[in-house]
Amino acid sequence: MAKGKEFESIVAIITRTLIDEAEVKSPDFLPDIETGELRQVDCSIVSKTGPYSLLIIQEARDRKRPVSVSYVEEVIQKAKSVGAQKAAIVSSKGFSCHARKKAASNRIDLFTLDEAESEDWKRWSWISVEELTVHLRRGEIRDVTIQLDDKVDTKAINLELLSKRYPEGMIPVNDKVFYDGKTGFWFSPSDIMKSSHVEKLFERVKPGAPPVQWKIKLDVSGKEVYVDVGDSKLPIKTLCIRAQAWIEVEESPLKHLAYTRDAQKGQRLAEYAEASFEHEGEKVSVALVRDKQKGAIRAFGKVSKI
What is the pLDDT of residue 224? Predict the structure, then answer.
């Protein structure tokens, strides 16, 4: 089962599926109605009907033991402090007997998020695959060349300084060495590719095939585009970028297979499956959630730093 913040994230995603007509925030910070101090809640749910608004807070509890009565009392007090009309607790290890009684007396809803056994989730008829096929776009700029404006006096250029700025005549692809005189912005060759040519770059690329070589030549004559040469900026006439692009194919197995139950009624409410992969230093996750009561299936995407 996922731990900590990841557990809270899964709970929030399932909540958004089950309560699709309400505003769900996770986490959220709500003001104490007496002191004005902001109180953090794992999830806030605001449901509006005409002129009326209902605030529900939900706490996700991921511990090694069942939720105790003292924690239920904490949630009851927090709900009162932020003016919530209702509260709920989602636990990864269930609830103690006294916690259940205290929650029932104070109209606190209790839910569990249980890990699905492999044989259990294979019977989920709405999932027909055990893994997702992911296509990861990859690109690489091979080299960048420029042609200076015809008005530039090449004899006046400090070649020694220029060679230090660009060793072996190579322009760094990620350095902001170009200057737009009309906007005042500096930009790099990579910025050019990301801003306007990504889709075109992958038009001829097939998943799993060898890289496709690609070339773009921009005529910037008279458009006040300059290149940094160390002690000054020189106007350029053309800018040429040679790049290659390919698409990696990766199989990402479904994991974090779980389901949510109403701890007081024993009724299963939702089923959850997730696949994740790494891309450019980030973890990208795709979650599939099925509302057991309505039969609706929703997909969610999330990105987090590794």
Answer: 92
Question: Is 125 in the same domain as 274?
Answer: yes
Same domain, residue pair 121 and 144: no
Give the C-alpha separation, 133 to 130, whole Å. 10
State the DSSP code for 22.
S
Q: What rounded mean pLDDT belongs to the chain? A: 86
Residue ending a domain, among 249, 266, 290, is 249
Q: For residue 290, what are the contacts with CB-CB under 8 A and spacing of at least 6? A: 17, 124, 126, 270, 271, 296, 297
Query: How much is the pLDDT for 208?
Result: 92
Dihedrals phi, psi of 162, to nearest 5 degrees: -65, -40
Pair (115, 199) in one structural domain: no
Q: Answer whether 0.85 is exceeded by the pTM.
A: no
Q: Is the pLDDT of residue 42 over 50?
A: yes
| pLDDT tens track for 113-125 | 987 765 565 667 7
What DSSP string runs through 149-195?
-TT--GGGS-HHHHHHHSGGGPPPSSS--EEETTTTEEE-HHHHHHH
Q: Is 96 within 8 Å of 67 (Cβ atoms)? A: yes
Same domain, yes or no: 112 and 190: no
For the stretch 174-184, what's the b/e string if a residue is b when 16 or more beta carbons lie within 10 angstroms of its beta carbon? eeebbbeeeee
> Strand, coil or helix: what is 2?
coil
Distance CA 202, CA 247 (A): 8
Q: How far apart are the first and last CA of the chain?
A: 19
pLDDT tens digits, 132-159: 888 888 888 888 888 888 888 877 777 6
Residues 233, 186 share a domain: yes
